[in-house]
TrEMBL record:
InterPro entries: AAA+_ATPase, ABC_transporter-like_ATP-bd, ABC_transporter-like_CS, P-loop_NTPase. It comes from Rhodobacter calidifons. Residues 5-237 form the ABC transporter domain. This is ABC transporter ATP-binding protein. The lineage of its organism: Bacteria, Pseudomonadati, Pseudomonadota, Alphaproteobacteria, Rhodobacterales. SMART domains: AAA. Keywords: ATP-binding, Nucleotide-binding. GO terms for molecular function: ATP binding. Pfam families: ABC_tran (PF00005).
Length: 255
């Protein structure tokens, strides 16, 4: 079966600067949940930007559904991949419903939204428990509520892949768990960066660990998040306690 997302020998770096990402090769199957972990500066966000067609690889190929992402037109790619980023809209005057409706733009035919578009938007609002906020200006919402709006906008794209950059950052513990459970239940391919290793271990089918722009682990959480790998990736001394139902991580500075 063709992977939904596939990277082959991918390198990337800013124009006229050295590579930040080096020789990335991995694939993600339909319905798989992949967490990308690593220290600040490891290249996690740069990797995500390759997946949602924000930046092209300097070398190598990114494929969606077996096709080169950069041979697709942008709207076609956006019907397959939706992104939820840490940067949020700056037009705070738009309502929650208007923000979510932006997710329909890749599907839009003609001048205005159709009946199907409106139905999809309302379903996304319900799924993210945002109906009560639908007519509220985006700027009046809390950080956690805004994050849920951005996920609802991505769902309105009806993608096959959803890419998220630290989606739990602005959420309290309950909403972190609720969001991750919802993402798991969508049946979509989910690729997300997560700095919380406990959440990554509990949520993901696979964990890809980046260190200085290279993959140093790509395996199920129990195999990827070992003491040795964590120590290398984060430059700390790590302990993993697997005696309970879920692993517990503890860290110390070297020395």
């Amino acid at each position: 079966m063709t992977p939904v997302v596939e990277l082959s020998g991918v390198h990337w770096g800013p124009k006229r600067q050295a590579d930040i990402l080096h020789d990335l090769t991995f694939s993600v199957a339909a319905g798989e949940v992949l967490a990308i972990c690593g220290a600040n500066g490891a290249g996690k966000s740069s990797l995500l930007r390759l997946l949602y067609r924000h930046q092209a690889p300097r070398k190598g190929t990114v494929r969606l559904m077996g096709r080169d992402l950069w041979l697709m037109k942008a709207p076609e790619a956006a019907r397959i991949v939706a992104a939820v980023l840490q940067e949020q809209p700056t037009d705070f005057a738009l309502t929650t419903r208007q923000i979510v409706a932006l997710g329909r733009l890749p599907h839009r035919k003609g001048f205005g939204p159709g009946t199907l578009d409106n139905a999809v938007v309302e379903a996304a609002l319900r799924r993210m428990d945002l109906t009560a906020f639908a007519d509220r200006p985006f700027g009046t919402l809390s950080g956690g509520e805004r994050q849920r709006v951005m996920v609802a906008r991505a769902l309105a794209q009806e993608p096959q892949v959803i890419v998220l950059d630290e989606p739990t950052n602005h959420l309290d513990i309950r909403h972190q768990l609720e969001l991750l459970a919802l993402l798991r239940g969508l049946g979509l391919t989910v690729i997300t960066t997560l700095h919380d290793l406990t959440l990554a271990a509990d949520f993901a089918d696979r964990v890809l660990v980046l260190h200085q722009g290279r993959i140093i682990a790509d395996a199920p959480p129990s195999q990827a998040l070992t003491e040795a790998t964590i120590a290398r990736a984060f430059n700390v001394t790590a302990r993993v306690d697997r005696s309970g139902p879920a692993p517990r991580f503890s860290f110390q500075l070297h020395g």
